[in-house]
Amino acid sequence: MRTGNRTDIQRIPDRIVFKQTVGALLISVGSVQIMKEYYGLPDLILLFAVVLSIFLYGLFIKNGDHHKPYNSYFQLSVVPIIAVGTYCYFVLKFGFFDLSAIAVHLQLGLDAPDVVHRYFLEAFNITLGVALFIAGNAILVRNNSKYRGFERIVSLLFFAALTFWIVSNSNLLAKDNDVRLADLYREPTPLSSDSAPLKNFIHVYLESTEGTYFDESQFGDTMAPLKPLVSRGLNATNMVQIHNTGWSSAGMTAANCGVPLSPIGLVAFNNFDWLDAFLPSAVCLGDILNKKGYQLSFILGANARFSGVDHLYIKHGFDDILDLDHFKRRYRDDPMALARSKQDWGLQDDIVFDAALEVLRARNAKAAPFGLVIETIGGHAPDGFLSPRCFSQTDIMAIEINVLRAVKCTNWLLAQFLAAAERDGLLENTIVVVQSDHLSMKNSIYSQLTSRKRRNLFFLFGEGIEARSHTNKVSPVDVYPTLLEAVGVRLPDSRAGLGVSMLSKRKSWIDIHGEALFNAMIRSDRELNARLWTRSDAKSVADAPAISDASTGNTN
Fold first, then answer.
1. What domains sit in the chain, N to C, each tagged with a CATH number?
2. 434: which residues sit within 8 A by CB, 6+ positions away?
3. What does the pLDDT look like over 149-191, one tens digit per residue?
């Protein structure tokens, strides 16, 4: 009996040591796998995991304890490693980590199965590293008290660092300022119209086509097709990207409603697709123009339900949306046309511009004023989407970098679209607005972009628009009042939402308060965001009767 007991006593530590060794190896491989993906290191770096596991063996196992395993011990490090893995993936994929963007997309919907599926597949390698680390960590914390103490210390240090980061980024700058974001917000109240007819407008969002691409020393003639158009009107050369405008639906919300797209927060706990609203108390471009008799259309080649874009337009005065579902119905009898233009997000830009030209002809045949909004996909990170129509353009195909080739292609398609429209007399009494929806996310030339003074693209031209450069600092929210005034809607103080018209002589709020403080006010805002996301019985401002210049004290 004694011999049996002594043998059993000797064998228990051996099993525990074996488990600890396996745990150290799993932690090592998992850690190195995450670093390999994040830094883009070669697969051979995984050999470093062997060295790391030997180090862990010597530190915790060789001279460690061999107590009975703990069956109920919570791994404090699970939260840090998942947080680190998540952070690494988003920086690796998009170039930055933005909690607001993640929250908004989860709340507003991810209805783009092909894209979402691809993103999940691309996250597999980092997820594998996180899973291996957690598995190895679980073995060691249960079987080695020395490591268990180490794990507690490291985890507590992480939580302390996280707390410090939250406090240091808690917008103390904004809290010390007397002006709140809600104080800057102006509910748009159009002045009574004079006898001049309102103008039509075409508003084109060029996906990720930031103004930084005009630097020919780095990006060649990528923007050459747009240069003749830019010189025809107002060119905003200093449009910065502010907080919560860095993705498509957010950039369009800023330009349409004059506010950033902040997460719903405590106002709604459910997925946005289950709600029948989008900033229900905001008065947006379509709300105002719809009441003035405009026919408003939005065209894109992707699924408009992604990130709630359909709600942004339909719930704010637009009459119809032509998106991927529309094109599938339209080309039901010609599947090859769809197949030639198919890409991950939907359809290429050549089909979108063809449809836009048809809509433009139909709108011009009617007496009512109209607005046509177009969203492209060509410049989307990481490599762009090249439309088949550009295959025959030698100057475009000669560009070696895929994303630059795709950006120039879409620029060329836009120039061709506007040239055809002008040739057919479809741009009379029409304002043309072109802008980037946001700065580019991580692509193959991201380091070149981030090494420069990055600016969004924005220009507009048409009857009554002076050809000049607007060099004062502005942001996407300033597009909203600018477009309203461009089509002939007069505004008190040239303000709407958080925006100030670039057609006026007034400075924008970001120019007055500075970029850092303005962004801090956005991050710390609760009051304005809650007001805009809370449903009201009616949009009182849009429904209010127009007022005259005399009653406003307008100094313009």
1. 2-169 (no CATH), 186-539 (3.40.720.10)
2. 204, 206, 226, 229, 414, 457, 458, 459, 460
3. 888 888 888 888 777 766 665 555 455 567 889 999 999 888 7
